[in-house]
C-alpha cells in the first residue's frame, strides 16, 4: 500500500483554501467614496479621489494593517515574504499582515463584525473572496483601487482583461491586486493506466467524464471514480460555460440582480446527469461543509480517481509530493513505471464542461482598500498593492503562491515558462493558466448582492437531489424562489 501521508498533508493545507460565505456586512459610513453610477448599476461610474498626496504629507512612516486568511503552506509564506519585501523596499509605509482565519468566510465574518460594531477596529487592507464583490460595492466599504491606479498613472490594461472584468462592478475595478484561481479537474494518472485509459487525455466534457468514470469502475480501479463535493461554483461554471445566466440583468452585470433564473431545462439536465452518475455508483458525493477534506481523502484512500477543485490546490499537492515525483514523471512524458511504485500520480486537466473544456470565469480573492481608514493609510495601502502589481512580485504569487498570473507580462518570463515545464507545481497549474488565457471578459460570472443566500440555496438543492433522492424539479424551483426573495429584500434595503 503506498504511503498516504504526503497527500494527507496537502489535503489539510488545501482545506484552508475552501471558502464558504456569510451575509454582507453593514457599513457605518455613508458610501461617500464609493464609485457611483445611475443607481441601477448602469452607465459609467464616477471614481472617488485617491488621496495619494496624503502619504507624502505624513510626518513619518505610516502604519497599515492587512487582514487575510484562507491560505496556508507555500501560499501563506508568499504572503509573508511579500509583506517583508515591501517593508524593506521603502521607508514611507510599515505594513503588518494578520492571518484572520482558515477560510475566506472566516475572514469575512470578522470583517463583517468589525464593520457592524463601528469601533474603529477595521483593517486598512483586507483580502476577501470575489463573491463578496457586489456587497462590498453596494455597502460603500471600500475605496475602488482603480481610482488609485488612475491617480498613480498605472496602466490598468497590464492586468488580464478577464480578471479585470471579473473583479469589477459598473466597469470599476475594486481590488488593487487579485489572487486568481479557477476550477480544474485533478486526477490520478496511475488509475488511468490501470484502467487502460490514456493518462494524458482526461475528460474534456461531461459525457467523457461519465465514460471514463465507467471505465475506471469496470476495471475495479476505484469504487466511486468521481469525488464530487457539492459546489455552487462548479454548477455555476457549467451553466456560464454555455452562456446561461443564473440571475437577471445579464447576470447582475448590467444592473442589480433582482430575480434568480437557474430553474432551467439546462439545470435540470445537469442534475439529471449527476443523479444518473450517482445511481450508477460513479459519484462519491460530499456535502459542502466548511473546512471539510473528505473529498480529498477519498483520493488519498484511492476510493476515487478524480475530483473538481480550485487550481490553487495544485501547489499544495506539489509541495506535499516534493521529492517523490518529478515534473517530468508526472507531466506530458508520464513515466508509467510509477504505477508500480506510486499509488498517486497527480494530473490536472481543464475544467470539464458541458460541451468543451476550460469554460470558466476567474475566481479567487482580491485585496481591497478600506475607505474608513485615514487618507494616509489609504494611500499607503495602494503603495503595497502597486508593489504587488510589479511583474516580479506578481510572478512570485504564481511561482510560489499557486495563484494564476494576472499581470500580462508574467507569462512571457523565461523562469515562468520553465516552471510550467520543469516543476511539478507548474505542471499542475498550467491547465488553469490556459483556461485563464481563454476566459471571455464578457462572461465574468454573476454579481449577486446576497451571494451567500444563492450559494446556500443552490447547494442545498443539489445535496437534496444527490444525497436525499429529492425530485429535481421542485428542488430547483424552491431554491430559485428563495433566492429571488433574498434578491428582492436586498434590492429594497
Entry summary:
With 493 residues, the chain is an alpha/beta fold. The protein has 22 helices and 13 strands.
Shape by Cα distribution: globular
Q: In terms of quaternary structure, what is this?
A: single chain
Number of DSSP helical runs: 22
Low-confidence stretches: 1-33, 37-43
Calculate Rg over CA atoms.
Answer: 22 Å
Report the sheet-strand fraction.
Answer: 5-15%
State the helical fraction.
40-55%
- Overall pLDDT metric: 87
Distance between the termini: 58 Å
How would a textbook summarize the main sheet? 6 strands, mixed
Q: By helix and strand content, what is the structural category?
A: alpha/beta
Total strand segments: 13
Structure commentary:
- This protein has 493 residues and is α/β, with parallel strands linked by helices.
- The chain is built from 22 helices and 13 strands.
- Strands 1, 2, 3, 4, 7 and 13 form a 6-stranded mixed β-sheet that branches. Strands 10-9-11-8-12 form a 5-stranded mixed β-sheet, sandwiched between helices.
- Helix 3 links the parallel strand 1 (62-68) and strand 2 (93-99).
- Helix 19 packs across helix 20 (424-438).
Primary descriptors:
493 residues; 22 helices; globular; six-stranded mixed beta sheet; alpha/beta; disordered N terminus; five-stranded mixed beta sheet
Amino acid at each position: 500500500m503506498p504511503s498516504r501521508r504526503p497527500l494527507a498533508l496537502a489535503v489539510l493545507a488545501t482545506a484552508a483554501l475552501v471558502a464558504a460565505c456569510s451575509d454582507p456586512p453593514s457599513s457605518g459610513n455613508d458610501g461617500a467614496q464609493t464609485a457611483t453610477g445611475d443607481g441601477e448599476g448602469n452607465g459609467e461610474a464616477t471614481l472617488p479621489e485617491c488621496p495619494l498626496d496624503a502619504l507624502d504629507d505624513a510626518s513619518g512612516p505610516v502604519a497599515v494593517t492587512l487582514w487575510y486568511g484562507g491560505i496556508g503552506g507555500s501560499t501563506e509564506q508568499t504572503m509573508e515574504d511579500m509583506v517583508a519585501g515591501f517593508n524593506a523596499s521603502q521607508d514611507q509605509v510599515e505594513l503588518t499582515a494578520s492571518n484572520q482565519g482558515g477560510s475566506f468566510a472566516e475572514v469575512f465574518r470578522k470583517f463583517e463584525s468589525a464593520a457592524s460594531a463601528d469601533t474603529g477596529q477595521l483593517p486598512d487592507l483586507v483580502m476577501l473572496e470575489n463573491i463578496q464583490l457586489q456587497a462590498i460595492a453596494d455597502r460603500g466599504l471600500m475605496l475602488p483601487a482603480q481610482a488609485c491606479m488612475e491617480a498613480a498613472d498605472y496602466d490598468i490594461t497590464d492586468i488580464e482583461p478577464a480578471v479585470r472584468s471579473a473583479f469589477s462592478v459598473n466597469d470599476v475595478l475594486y481590488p488593487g491586486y487579485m489572487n486568481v484561481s479557477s476550477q480544474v479537474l485533478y486526477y490520478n494518472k496511475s488509475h488511468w493506466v490501470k484502467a487502460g485509459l490514456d493518462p494524458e487525455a482526461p475528460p474534456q466534457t461531461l459525457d467523457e467524464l461519465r465514460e471514463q468514470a465507467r471505465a475506471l469502475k469496470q476495471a475495479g480501479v476505484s469504487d466511486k471514480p468521481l469525488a464530487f463535493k457539492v459546489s455552487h461554483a462548479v454548477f455555476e461554471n457549467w451553466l456560464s460555460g454555455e452562456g446561461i445566466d443564473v440571475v437577471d440583468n445579464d447576470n447582475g452585470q448590467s444592473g442589480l440582480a433582482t430575480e434568480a433564473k437557474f430553474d432551467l431545462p439546462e439545470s435540470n439536465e445537469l442534475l439529471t446527469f449527476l443523479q444518473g452518475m450517482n445511481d450508477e455508483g460513479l459519484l462519491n458525493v460530499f456535502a459542502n461543509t466548511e473546512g471539510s477534506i473528505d473529498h480529498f481523502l477519498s483520493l488519498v484512500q484511492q476510493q476515487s480517481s478524480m475530483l473538481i477543485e480550485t487550481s490553487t490546490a495544485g501547489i499544495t499537492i506539489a509541495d506535499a509530493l516534493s521529492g517523490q515525483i518529478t515534473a517530468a514523471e508526472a507531466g506530458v512524458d508520464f513515466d508509467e513505471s510509477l504505477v508500480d511504485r506510486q499509488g498517486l500520480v497527480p494530473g490536472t486537466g481543464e475544467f470539464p464542461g458541458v460541451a468543451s473544456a476550460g469554460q470558466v470565469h476567474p475566481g479567487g480573492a482580491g485585496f481591497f482598500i478600506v475607505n474608513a481608514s485615514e487618507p494616509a493609510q489609504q494611500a499607503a495601502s495602494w503603495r503595497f498593492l502597486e508593489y504587488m502589481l510589479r511583474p516580479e512580485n506578481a510572478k512570485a504569487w504564481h511561482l510560489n503562491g499557486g495563484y494564476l498570473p494576472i499581470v500580462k507580462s508574467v507569462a512571457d518570463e523565461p523562469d515562468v515558462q520553465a516552471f510550467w515545464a520543469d516543476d511539478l507545481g507548474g505542471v499542475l497549474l498550467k491547465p488553469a493558466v490556459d483556461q485563464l488565457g481563454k476566459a471571455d471578459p464578457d462572461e465574468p460570472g454573476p454579481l449577486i448582492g446576497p451571494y451567500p443566500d444563492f450559494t446556500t440555496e443552490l447547494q442545498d438543492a443539489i445535496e437534496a437531489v444527490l444525497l436525499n433522492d429529492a425530485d429535481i424539479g421542485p428542488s430547483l424551483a424552491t431554491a430559485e424562489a428563495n433566492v429571488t426573495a433574498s434578491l428582492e429584500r436586498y434590492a429594497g434595503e
